[in-house]
């Protein structure tokens, strides 16, 4: 039973229903009927009482069509083997335990046959797909953190738009539509919603502005904090990816 393939030191040893059927058939005595994969699949719900759904998988048959199967961890593989005989259960347990020891010791499993090699390639492809999905999920956050690292303190909305690589007009519109900022009736300046200020996403600063007649006036400006910029980067990147 060399076709149980560990992917890596952090991966649990698994065995597909196809591999289990092959192993069971390799142990049958003279005159015993060959076990069909379809019969094995039909038996799984009876043995695992619905838990088999957690291990649903697919494989590609000789006609390049996707077919259902299971990929069981040690416990479920042993339960299925035990439903045929205690001897089979013991052999599956021993083999999977052996592979767990090999993997834990940091040694590499080298496929001995072409089916083994193809199975390893499929397992590695699955693992790589998961890693790619994780990277894609983290990319908006990484980009957001990069922008924050380049930012220095709070900034006006126009400057934030530059960091976020979006037109200022579109950012003002987005912030207004998503209840970050608003204008008082009859007012011209933008103000931040109190909930956004309390969350540390926005802040208000009062600036002194000189009038044309030489006098001065106090002007309140809504500014985006580094935390707010980080949040906006994630939200806007997620919107683009959708």
Detailed description of the structure:
It is a single chain. This protein is α+β, with helices and mostly antiparallel strands and 242 residues long. The strands form three sheets. A three-stranded antiparallel beta sheet has the order 1-3-2. Strands 4-8-7 form a three-stranded antiparallel beta sheet. The longest helix has 37 residues. It is rod-shaped, with a radius of gyration of 30 Å. It starts with 13 loop residues before the first strand and ends with a helix. The N terminus is likely disordered.
Averaging pLDDT over every residue, what do you get? Answer: 79
Number of helices: 9
What's the arrangement of strands in the largest beta sheet? Answer: 1-3-2
Largest sheet: 3 strands, antiparallel
Number of strands: 8
* Overall 3D shape: rod-shaped
Helix content: 40-55%
Structural class: alpha+beta
Rg from alpha-carbon coordinates: 30 Å
Q: H/E series, N to C?
A: EHHEEHHHEHHEEHEEH
- Return residue spans where pLDDT drops below 50 for at least 5 consecutive residues: 1-10
Cα-to-Cα separation, first versus last residue: 45 Å
Write the layout of secondary structure elements.
Layout: E1 14-16, H1 17-26, H2 37-48, E2 56-60, E3 66-73, H3 74-82, H4 86-104, H5 114-150, E4 155-156, H6 157-164, H7 168-177, E5 181-182, E6 191-192, H8 194-198, E7 202-210, E8 216-224, H9 226-241
Antiparallel strand pairs: 1-3, 2-3, 4-8, 5-6, 7-8
Helix pairs in contact: 3-4, 5-9
